[in-house]
Structures are given as structure tokens and as C-alpha cells.
Amino acid sequence: MTIRPFGRGRLTGAVDVVVVGAGHSGLAMSRQLSRLAIDHVVLEHGEVANSWRHERWDSLRLLTPNWQSRLPDYAYDGADLDGFMTMPEVVDFVTGYARFIAAPVRTGVRVSSVTASDDGYVVETDRGTWRCRSVVIASGAHGVANVPAFAEAVPCAVQTLTAKQYRNPDQLDDRGVLVVGASATGLQLADEIARSGREVTLCVGEHIRMLRTYRGLDIQRWLHTLGILDERWDTIDDIVRARRVPSPQLVGTPEHTTLDLNALTERGVRLVGRLAGIQDGRAQFSGSLANHCAMADLKLGRLLDTIDRWVAENPARLMSAVAGLRPADPTERFAATRLEASPPLTLDLAKGRIGTILWATGFRPDLRWLQVPVFDRKGRLRHDGGVVDAPGLYVLGLNFMRRRKSSFIHGAEDDVRDLGTHLATHLRQGVVPPARRAAG
Ligand SMILES: Cc1cc2nc3c(=O)[nH]c(=O)nc-3n(C[C@H](O)[C@H](O)[C@H](O)COP(=O)(O)OP(=O)(O)OC[C@H]3O[C@@H](n4cnc5c(N)ncnc54)[C@H](O)[C@@H]3O)c2cc1C
After folding, report:
1. 173 shares a domain with 116
2. Which CATH number does the domain housing residue 107 bear?
3. Can you tell me the distance from the alpha carbon of 138 to that of 24, in angstroms, rounded to the nearest whole number?
């Protein structure tokens, strides 16, 4: 790597690879590039593990157990393998990794544009310019909160917050809260706010119902053992749809609690349909609540059937794969989601009962700095399992990017191994067509 001072406090450099972002994905790729002896730098606009430090609510814990907190050559080494990390613990884990691998991270450097050049890419930052042959986008899947356009019609007496802006209930006035979105984030926030004594209404659209434990084991252990988390993007019929599936309704707590819509109803949360629009100060909810819940119940039932079948067919593998489970453990079933007979279809936001609308409606990557023609009509990055549709350009950490586990911490290891191999070939040969199975 060559680095020269470039004016006051500015740098300019030439390097084989620029990795954008020092979250766990960028660091895992850095480890892989070091193993392959590929010259690289990791540019990070904040600090290492920036999004875990600054973009999550206070009480959040990982919903993946500690045994799943692992990165290439590094893993959780505490005593509580089945516990769930708090945010300070995640920050320690990721910063410990950066130290352990001696990653060449430059913090406080924001990438403002990446453009193609004759021999690779030009990376402009607020601290100077880098030239490189390859760029790895590891800037995160949660850059921008998805807020529907009709949010503009929210009456001005109602405050709105995204899940990225929410920290704890002290930010809210005493009035009711409308939480929009019933995936992991929406459920956790609805639960916390209801516990704070506020009235909560939860808008429920398509969702993935999940149990925390089944037949005595954490659900993540089952998904891992059955190979579901390892499913590859190129074996899925409709990968575009699979990538849009919301996160499962899971929470990580010391008590290993299952947090589902029934638990929220018991806590006093009112369930309504998907928020479809806001007109004349009234929120309008879709009438599909019962259908969405029936579908989620059905899919959970199918998952549990799959687990039961696997248990019946694999008694020997079970004993070795899942220490401690006796195959004779009885199967459990769950109560269907309970709903009011006629959930309300509208809610008057102007009447003053609702003080806050909390958008828990998902996120999308913030790639405004990527000035290479690699986006489709809907503004989504065109990539094939992380190999972006431009030579030498790669992405990490997106939902179901290369495997079902790609967006999770433990998903980075397999993805960076595959994409690192592809990238090394690109550097050796110049251009590698984004062949589906070229890298793994
Ligand atoms: C609420 C929530 C809960 C989650 N819970 C879990 C969980 O329980 N288990 C699990 O495995 N995963 C979980 N995830 C998913 C995932 O592991 C995290 O989103 C993780 O932070 C993604 O890591 P990453 O390295 O891909 O991106 P990030 O951690 O977001 O890192 C990207 C980095 O890029 C930097 N960056 C962005 N733009 C630029 C730029 N232009 N120039 C320079 N730097 C830039 C950012 O500052 C950031 O540090 C959760 C995600 C969310 C949002």
C-alpha cells in the first residue's frame, strides 16, 4: 500500500482493495484478504462497530445466542454459550476482533463517492482519494430506515421516530404509541413501551412467527442443525422475494422468552392490520390482519413439522449434533394467534391519544456514494451472491445475500471465504464473470 500526505490531514493512496465499513462484515473480509496476502485498507466513517454503538436502542440484545457469535478465527469464549449479548458486549466483541486481526482500519474517513476508472475504482473520501482495483461494500444493510411516503401526512402534534432514532421510552411523551411493523424490532419495541405504562397499538402485516425454544432447544440451534441457515441463494426459486422476507419475531433475553403477538396482547398491546395510509389525520389499517396471522401460524407449524420429521429420521445424527436432547422429548404445539373479532380499521391521530408513531418498517442500505451503474429500476444493487454487476465490486451483509445467514454475524465467515476467492481471481486475471458458483 502506498500512502502519501495530501494537504492538511488528508491522505491519498493506492491499494489493491478498499473495504468500505468496519462493522463485522468489513473486518471479516479484511481477515480473509490478509490471509490471501492482498493489500487493502478498511475505511470507516465513525468508529469500529459504529452501528452497534450509535444506531441501536439501549435495551437491545442480540437475538442470536453467543455460540453463534463467531467470525473467521474468532469466537465468543465466555461461559454463557446460550446467552445473548448486550450492545456494549457486541461492541467489545467486534472491536476485540479488529485488534485481534490487526485490521488496517482508518476511522473517521467517510467515503463520499466511488467511481469506475480504467484500472479499477477511485474512492473519494472526506480525507482524500484512494485508487484501487477492487472495492468491497461492507457499509451495512441498515443505512436508511424505510418510512412510507404517506408519513408526510402524520399530524404535526404526533412525533415520529424510526427504530434507528429510538433509544428508550424516556424519549416519548405519556400518550399512546403506534408501532408500525411487527418483526423482531417492532415486537421488541412494542413490548418495551407497553411495559413503560404507555398504551401501544401495533400494526401487523406479513410476519414470521417464531418460538424461542422448541423441544428443549433454542430455535437457532434447530435452524443450524437442519442446515436451514446455510441454504444458498442460487438454490431458492424466488430469491427476490426471499430477500424481502421480514426478520423472525425473536428476542434474546436471559429468560429465553418467546415474544409473540399473543404475549403482547396479554401485556395490553392492541393489534391492528398493516398501516395502509393516513388521510385527514386518520390512520387506515388494512383488513388483512387475520390472514397475515393465519399464514404466520401455518408457516410456524410447518417449520415445527420439519423439525419433528428430522428428529424422527435422524436419531443418530441428533445425538451427536445436538448434545443433551433426548429424541423421546415430546413435541410441543402453540396456540393460534388470538385476535379481536373486529379489529379497528382506522384510528384518529388528531384526537391526541397517540403521541408517537414509531416506524419499525425495516431498513435499506445507504449506497448514495456508489456512482457505478449497478442498480436496478427499484434502486436495488444488482449482485449475484455478493458479486456485484461490475468487475471487482463486491458487497457483504445483505439479507439472504449468499446464504440465509448472510446478514448475521456468523454468516460472514462463509461469505468472505467465497467472495475473497472470487476477488483474488479477479486481481490475478483482471475480469471474472459473475459466474454463479465460481466462488464456492
Ligand atoms: C436492530 C438490529 C438487531 C440485529 N440483531 C442481530 C443479531 O441478534 N444477530 C446477528 O447476527 N445480527 C443481527 N443484526 C444484523 C447484523 O448483524 C447487523 O446489522 C450488523 O451491524 C451488520 O454488520 P455489517 O458489518 O454488515 O454492517 P454495519 O455493522 O452496519 O457496519 C457498516 C459500517 O460501515 C460504516 N459506513 C457506512 N457508510 C460508510 C461510508 N460512506 N464511508 C465509510 N464508512 C461507512 C458504518 O459506520 C459502519 O460502521 C441486527 C441488526 C439490527 C438493525
Report:
1. no
2. 3.50.50.60
3. 9
- Residue of 53, 107, 139, 361 to test ligand 1 pocket, by largest number of atoms within 8 Å of CB: 139
CA of 302 to the centre of ligand 1 (A): 31
**Mean pLDDT on 84-94:** 98
139 lies in the same domain as 150: no
| Ligand 1 contact via 399 beta carbon (within 6 Å) | no
* pLDDT exceeds cutoff 60 at 270: yes
Nearest alpha carbon to residue 208 among 362, 416, 390: 362
Domain boundary among 341, 359, 377: 359
Q: Give me the mean pLDDT over the 198-203 stretch.
A: 98
> Does 286 map to a domain?
yes
Range of the domain at 44: 13-143+365-439
Counting the structural domains of the chain, the total is 2
Rounded average pLDDT over 162-186? 97
Which residue's CA is the closest to the ligand 1 atom numbered 10?
A: 408
Ligand 1 atom nearest to CA at 26: 25
Burial degree of 294 (CB within 10 A; 0-12, 13-18, 19+): middle
Q: How far is the CA of 304 from the centre of ligand 1 (A)?
A: 30
Q: How far is the CA of 326 from the centre of ligand 1 (A)?
A: 37
Measuring from atom 35 of ligand 1, which residue has the nearest CA?
21
Start-to-end CA span in the chain (Å) = 28
- CB of 409 within 6 A of ligand 1: the answer is yes
Do 345 and 374 have their domain in common? no
Please tell me whether residues 27 and 94 are part of one structural domain.
Answer: yes
What is the structure's pLDDT at 435?
A: 41
Determine which of 156-160, 333-337, 381-385 has the lowest per-residue pLDDT on average.
Answer: 333-337
C-beta 56 within 6 A of ligand 1: yes
Integer Cα distance of 129 and 12 in angstroms: 5
Residues 250 and 178 in one domain: yes
Same domain, 281 and 313: yes
In a domain, 207, yes or no: yes
Please name the residue whose Cα sits nearest to atom 38 of ligand 1.
139
Whether residue 419 contacts residue 28, with contact meaning beta carbons closer than 8 Å, is answered with: no
DSSP conformation letters of 116-134: EETTEEEEEETTEEEEEEE
- Residue 422: pLDDT over 90: yes
Q: Which of 82, 142, 192, 358 is the pocket-test mutation for ligand 1 (most atoms within 8 Å of CB)?
A: 142
Structure confidence at residue 440 as a pLDDT band (50, 70, 90): very low
- d(Cα 204, Cα 274) in Å, to the nearest integer? 5
More confident residue, 328 or 354: 354
Q: Are residues 323 and 415 in the same domain?
A: no
pTM reported for the whole predicted model = 0.93
Split at pLDDT 50, 70, 90, the class of 420 is very high
Ligand 1 center–CA 306 separation, angstroms: 31
Domain endpoint, select from 306, 325, 359:
359
Query: Quick check: is 1 in a domain?
Result: no
